[in-house]
Structures are given as structure tokens and as C-alpha cells.
Specification:
With 324 residues, the protein is α/β, with parallel strands linked by helices. It has ten helices and twelve strands. The chain binds iron/sulfur cluster.
Length: 324
């Protein structure tokens, strides 16, 4: 891998779920959950992926993690194509890419002591680590995420939501990954705790040169941590650029609408709210032309006939809209 090779490259990724029915269980329809998504993530970089519930962002995360197989497209991890690797072939690569889930309570085994939960990934890789070295590593990880060593023998239910997410982060860090897929990691937490967890993730990124794919439904949440942000709508990436360009000069009408709902303390800087009208179409039956045409205030004839491609509309700024 050269210095310039991204940690993660996703090309034209698609995940379609067949909907079957009838006596013969034949395919009756398809859910186009992810439909031709491309992006890359550099070393030490955070790519935020945002969009409303059902836009396919979490499916993108699951496909990258190989928890589900893509319908088409490719995933390269540190330059290696992992798209078609089997579970066994993926094993050595899994340690390079870890996950933090949304619900720390559901994602931690309630019957295990937290010491064992954090140590578990170490046991999955036979690194010749002695029992005491493993214990030491767990204590070190507890320190890194701001948990006290006295808590090692407790169970997850004895921790607050924020502490449980710290445990999830410690577990994700155990194998020294280079990339972490964080799927709505702070959505279940109070706002004040969200900021603490995001700051912790940023500190860890600086210390370990980690790369993050940070998935959230809220632009305000990804704003602080992301270097670049991708906006998804109905399975497609509709805008992708660096954070400052996105917030200062959004190019897609959907991003404009999302930004209008981000709280801004200074009333003079508040954007004129563009209320989205119309329903979100079903990913089983997306509209012809631009998928956003049922809600877009600027839609014109062409928008109902041709699907806009994601293209560079300004240096380093990609958007999928006919009007740009
Ligand atoms: Fe709106 Fe047309 Fe642009 Fe789609 S292509 S976002 S419908 S203006």
C-alpha cells in the first residue's frame, strides 16, 4: 500500500434485497437499499455519512463490514479487494476494521463481565498473548476510554449509556484497527454525553491515526468530527465534499433542507428554512429521473426524466443535481 492509498475505497456499491412472495416464494419486487455508492476514506480521516432513516447508510456500513454481501460493486481495504472474500478469508482483515454500534446496551453481552467483553476480540486472534498481557491490555484500553480499572469486574447493566459506549469503543480498539465503522454511535445518548463520546473518538483518532466512517441521521452530529461528509438519499450518494464546503455552500437541494434544520446559535446566521414537502418514495419503487424529484422545490421537466449522476460541480465538491 502506498502512502496515498486510501484505507477504504468503495466503488459503485449496490445492495438490493429481493422481496419474495406467493406459494413458490418467487421474487416479486426489490428494495434498492444501496444503489451505486462510491467514496474513499484516507488514513486518519473521518468520513461522515448522513441521511434520513431508510436512506441506506447503515446498509453501506454492514456491507463494508461484510456482515451482508453486496449485490454488486467493490470494497477495497488498504488496496486489497475484499468484496468476494469468504468469512474465513476475511478473518485476518477483520482486525484492521472494527465497528461501534448504535445501541451499546444491545451490542454488549449482558451476562459477561466487561473485562471479558473488551478482551474477547483478543481471544479471536492467536497472537501468543499471555493471560497477564491480555489483562494489561484491557486495563490500558479502559484507561484510554476514560473508565476506571475498578469497573473491570462489573456487568454492562451497571454502566450508564455513555459508559457503555466507552466500553464499545474500548472493544473496537482492542485489536489496534486502522478503520472503525461507527453506526449511529451517539444517537442513543443524551446531547451532553454525545459531545463527550465524540470528543473521545477524536482524541483516539489523533493518538492512533484512526480512520472513521461515522454514520448518523443528523448533520449536527457529524459536523464536529467529520473531515468530509457524504449525504445519502434513497440509496444514493447525492453530495460528497469536505465539511466546510458542505456547510458553507451546499450544492444539492436535499442537503440545503438538512442544513436548515441544524441548530445555529446566532439568529443572523440561520438559514431560511426550506420545508420539504412530499413523501419519501419507497426504495422498492423509486421515482423515474432524480430520486429527490417528489420533494424538491426546484424540480423541472428534466428531473422527472433523467437520473442525475454524482459529478464534480466545484473542485473537490461532488453533487448529483441537474441544476448544478
Ligand atoms: Fe431537484 Fe432536479 Fe436537482 Fe433532483 S435534479 S435535486 S429534482 S433540481
Amino acid at each position: 500500500m502506498s502512502a496515498a492509498t486510501p484505507i477504504l475505497e468503495v466503488s459503485d456499491l449496490a445492495k438490493h434485497f429481493p422481496v419474495t412472495g406467493g406459494i413458490l416464494g418467487r421474487e416479486q419486487a426489490r428494495v434498492y437499499a444501496v444503489d451505486g455508492v462510491s467514496f474513499s476514506v484516507g488514513a486518519g480521516e473521518t468520513l461522515g455519512i448522513v441521511g434520513e432513516s431508510g436512506c441506506g447508510k447503515s446498509t453501506v456500513g454492514k456491507v463494508i463490514l461484510k456482515l451482508i454481501e453486496p449485490t454488486s460493486g467493490s470494497i477495497r481495504l488498504k488496496g486489497k479487494d475484499i468484496t468476494k472474500l469468504s468469512r474465513r478469508q476475511m478473518h485476518p482483515h477483520r482486525r484492521e476494521m472494527q465497528v461501534i454500534f448504535q445501541d451499546p446496551y444491545a451490542s454488549l453481552n449482558q451476562r459477561m463481565r466487561v473485562r471479558d467483553i473488551v478482551a474477547e476480540p483478543l481471544g479471536n486472534y492467536d497472537d501468543g498473548m499471555s493471560r497477564s498481557a491480555r489483562e494489561e491490555r484491557v486495563v490500558e484500553l479502559f484507561n484510554k476510554v476514560g473508565l476506571r480499572r475498578e469497573a473491570l469486574h462489573r456487568y454492562p447493566y451497571e454502566f450508564s449509556g455513555g459508559q457503555r459506549q466507552r466500553l464499545g469503543i474500548a472493544r473496537a480498539l482492542a485489536l489496534n484497527p486502522e478503520l472503525i465503522i461507527a453506526d449511529e454511535p451517539v444517537s442513543a445518548l443524551d446531547v451532553s454525553v454525545q459531545a463527550q463520546v465524540i470528543n473521545l473518538m477524536m482524541d483516539l483518532q489523533a493518538e492512533y491515526h484512526l480512520s472513521y466512517v461515522f454514520i448518523a441521521h443528523d448533520l449536527a452530529v457529524v459536523q464536529h468530527i467529520s473531515h468530509r461528509i457524504g449525504v445519502m438519499y434513497l440509496g444514493k450518494m447525492v453530495e460528497l465534499t469536505d465539511k466546510d464546503s458542505l456547510f458553507r455552500n451546499p450544492q444539492h437541494p436535499y442537503t440545503e433542507a438538512l442544513l436548515a434544520s441544524v441548530p445555529v446559535p446566532d439568529p443572523r446566521k440561520r438559514r431560511k428554512r426550506k420545508v420539504l414537502t412530499g413523501d419519501v418514495p419507497s426504495p422498492m419503487n423509486p421515482p423515474r429521473g432524480c430520486y429527490f424529484n417528489t420533494r424538491c422545490p426546484y424540480a423541472e421537466k428534466r428531473c422527472f426524466e433523467e437520473t442525475p449522476a454524482l459529478r464534480e460541480v466545484a473542485p473537490g465538491h461532488m453533487a448529483a443535481c441537474h441544476l448544478r
